[in-house]
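Query structure, 566 tokens:
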């Protein structure tokens, strides 16, 4: 009997199998069966994420219990104080999110570990805040972030409200992998143990809102802009509208997308990286002559931006909106004499060079991390202890930023408030945010940033992604699209190659990422997604103009497609 069939039979015949999964298991095709059981679902760059449904490679009540029991074992080994400090638990609008969250709380209680569970859906950044505010040992967030409706996921946080970095995650994974029978775990606890579960809500909300409002640099700016806002059926709806109301901004919500709908019925996609997320918001913007469109993903850690410019709406990339945020924040800190000593900004190895140049213009150094905001959170924690540098900003190309680190994850409510303030400030100067971006291009050079994701599902897809990276390592390109590769970085082998010289790449956890720097000032990076069945290609292309940068981007994308046979 094959391993897949063995795992399948175990599930089908197990007395503790949740009854809801019986029909799905019985009706599986051989291909579906293989995809659901060929491997065990694993932690990636943002925890554990996958398709909902029965199977060892799926998100379901049994795989979540296995993860939570492993986490509970890890907490218990940290000692009685960790168990008493407890775990904060949040969840988004997705199918089973609330049920899974409260089941996690019960299972922790069964292990005599205290928990604090939100009464209803809340943003991921508020969960991070709650861990810190309640002085918890850690946190659990049930969410699949910006993924489609078929997904759900599980993120773990440390006592600083930061997602577990590899050194900690590996300890939890060790505990999880030691559990042989996920189906044998139940969450039944005694009435006395049940008292360890505390439901939280408005008290934490209020403290979070106060902290978000504290990021304002010009709270008295004239607020004569119109903002169309969409939470894409997710958790940003109440917090963003509440913060806007308190700060005095006019917010026009996309009503059809404000219901916490797990099927995302009124949006083609809940992902701000994709054009479909803006369709209804654009309609609202045109009808209301709005200045700005802001769109958040379901767990409210990412924010997409649309700007009215010369009568048309321009949607910015995460790199562009991040650069505009940096320009506004740094310019205001400098103007008001609030720039700290030894200021530092954090972004990732696949984030555009533009933001770094903007920061440098104001004397702010930039430190790069691997993809995953936990690595930025780790840097924040480091300097919180050493005081060598002072945090100014952190962001990723994937539409996520953090203004003030009272949260240790991407925070869309913060970003929405800062973008509203920036748009209002620049409007008084007769400029919109695209004008600001164009000004940055004039000062620092024109860039076009893009990401192309090659989706390859199932076991065959996972093998093909590994093959693409392996082939690039085996036969490293000396040129791409006829342009010389002047430097290459391999984050898995920890090497830097410049010409015939090979040196060690330090300061990063080993990761399957390749980055190529080109003679024209551009770069291209390749990495497998840690949360989706995708191989991602990142492009930061420098041109003499927007048109030139775009033409070069198209050519480079085609060249990489040919180079990788994708």
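Result returned for the query:
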């Amino acid at each position: 009997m094959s391993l897949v069939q063995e795992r399948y039979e175990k599930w089908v015949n197990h007395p503790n199998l949740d009854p809801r999964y019986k029909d799905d298991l019985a009706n599986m095709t051989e291909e579906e069966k293989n995809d659901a059981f060929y491997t065990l679902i694993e932690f990636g760059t943002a925890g554990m994420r996958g398709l909902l449904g029965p199977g060892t490679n799926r998100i379901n009540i049994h795989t979540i219990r296995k993860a939570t029991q492993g986490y509970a074992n890890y907490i218990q080994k940290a000692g009685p104080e960790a168990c008493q400090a407890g775990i904060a638990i949040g969840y988004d609008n997705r199918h089973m999110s609330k049920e899974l969250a409260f089941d996690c709380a019960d299972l922790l209680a069964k292990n005599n570990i205290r928990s604090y569970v939100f009464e209803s859906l809340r943003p991921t950044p508020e969960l991070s805040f709650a861990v810190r505010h309640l002085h918890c040992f850690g946190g659990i967030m049930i969410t699949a972030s910006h993924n489609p409706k078929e997904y759900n996921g599980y993120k773990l946080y440390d006592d600083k409200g930061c997602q577990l970095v590899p050194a900690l995650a590996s300890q939890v994974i060790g505990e999880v992998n030691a559990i042989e029978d996920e189906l044998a775990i139940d969450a039944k606890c005694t009435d006395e143990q049940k008292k360890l579960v505390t439901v939280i809500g408005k008290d934490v909300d209020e403290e979070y809102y106060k902290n978000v409002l504290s990021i304002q640099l010009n709270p008295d700016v004239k607020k004569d802009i119109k903002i169309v806002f969409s939470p894409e059926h997710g958790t940003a709806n109440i917090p963003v509208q509440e913060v806007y109301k308190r700060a005095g901004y006019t917010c026009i919500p996309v009503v059809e997308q404000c219901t916490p709908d797990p099927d995302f019925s009124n949006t083609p996609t809940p992902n701000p990286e994709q054009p479909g997320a803006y369709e209804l918001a654009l309609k609202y913007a045109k009808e209301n002559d709005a200045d700005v469109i802001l769109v958040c993903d379901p767990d409210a850690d990412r924010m997409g931006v649309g700007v009215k410019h010369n009568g048309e709406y321009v949607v910015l990339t995460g790199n562009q909106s991040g650069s505009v945020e940096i320009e506004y924040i740094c310019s205001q800190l400098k103007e008001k004499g609030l720039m700290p000593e030894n200021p530092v900004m954090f972004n990732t190895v696949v984030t555009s060079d533009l933001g770094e140049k903007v920061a440098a213009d104001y004397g702010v150094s930039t430190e790069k991390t691997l993809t995953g905001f936990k690595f930025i959170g780790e840097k924040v924690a480091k300097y919180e202890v050493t005081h060598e540098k002072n945090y100014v900003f952190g962001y990723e190309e994937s539409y996520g930023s953090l203004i003030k680190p009272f949260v240790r994850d991407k925070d869309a409510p913060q970003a929405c408030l800062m973008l509203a303030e920036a748009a209002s400030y620049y409007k008084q100067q007769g400029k919109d945010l695209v004008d600001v971006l164009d000004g940055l291009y004039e000062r620092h050079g024109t860039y076009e940033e893009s990401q192309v994701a090659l989706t390859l599902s199932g076991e065959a897809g996972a093998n093909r992604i590994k093959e693409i990276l392996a082939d690039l390592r085996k036969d490293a390109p000396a040129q791409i699209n006829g342009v010389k590769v002047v430097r290459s970085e391999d984050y898995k082998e920890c090497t830097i190659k410049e010409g015939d010289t090979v040196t060690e790449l330090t300061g990063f956890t080993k990761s399957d990422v390749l980055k190529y720097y080109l003679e024209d000032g551009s770069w291209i990076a390749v990495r497998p997604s840690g949360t989706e069945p995708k191989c991602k290609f990142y492009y930061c292309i420098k041109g003499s103009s927007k048109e030139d940068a775009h033409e070069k981007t198209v050519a480079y994308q085609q060249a990489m497609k040919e180079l990788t046979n994708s």
